[in-house]
Specification:
about 325 residues, alpha+beta, 4-stranded mixed β-sheet, 6 helices, about 25% strand
Length: about 325
Amino acid sequence: MRRWWWLLLGLCSPAVVLAAVSRPALAPPPLYQQVAGGEEDCEVPGKTTLSILAAEKGVKWTVVAKQNGLKKPYKITTGMVLKINTKHIVPAELDSGLVINLPELILYRFANGVYQRRYSLAVGKPSWPTPTGSFKIGEKRRNPTWNVPESIQEEMEEQGLEVVEQVPPGPKNPLGKFWMGTTASGVGIHATNRPWSVGYYVSHGCIRMLPEEIEQLFPQIEVGTPVKIIYRPIKMALTPQGRVYLEVHPNIYNWRYEAREVVKELAQRHGLQNLLDWEKVAAVLKAKEGVAQDITLEPRREPVQAGDSSRPRESRLGPLQGQKAGLE
């Protein structure tokens, strides 16, 4: 009997059709306002890996490895302190509900107009992408049975593998202990028995979460909760303090756009052309690290010439003056 478990790397939609997908054009993104997160020191807990730790922080493990000078095989040990930059631009498509940005591999939760937190994901592979659009949570199940989609059964048969119609609850069930089905046909948000796949584009359209994170999220989500799935490889924000941030992710589904033109058009539309440092923009676009970077153009500081009367005078206490000495 041949093993079929390798197919679970790409489960799970019965209706998301595997086919050559035309490349859509990227719509002009909105200008966001909120930037969250920042640089932090993270002490490595026991029994974890770099990819899992990075997923828990909502960042790419490759970026953490680069920032900390880690080399192959990228092993981390208990008690090691890693510097991690979690700064990110918060999307504002919904006031309450779930916003999923596919290139970012992140789910954002909002409640009553307030951003709560974000969660790392695994989403559909490029040949079988997760759909974008406005949906809702249609059902919730604990300890679900996986009814294997006909499309995946056909794939099993084509590969000469054992054809499986159902997988009961348990450690071999790729849906894990929690399933939240959306109104996108065949697409659900679920746990996984392969947590190392979170942070990658590997499914047949479904959305995987780390088991402990969906366990925390599951009771907070009701049937009917709005779900907005977006495709934003480029996000830009203008904060209330007047700083401009840019965050760039890989174009995983190969949508049609020219990255610099997207930023240029967004800047022109909002009158930000003169606020941007285009050298910083180019660096962020090239790196695609998924970390929000400040791209605000700093004002030039003219050097002060000797004898310049405009230079402010400095008053200092002499070394022999005590606390009672005064300045006039």
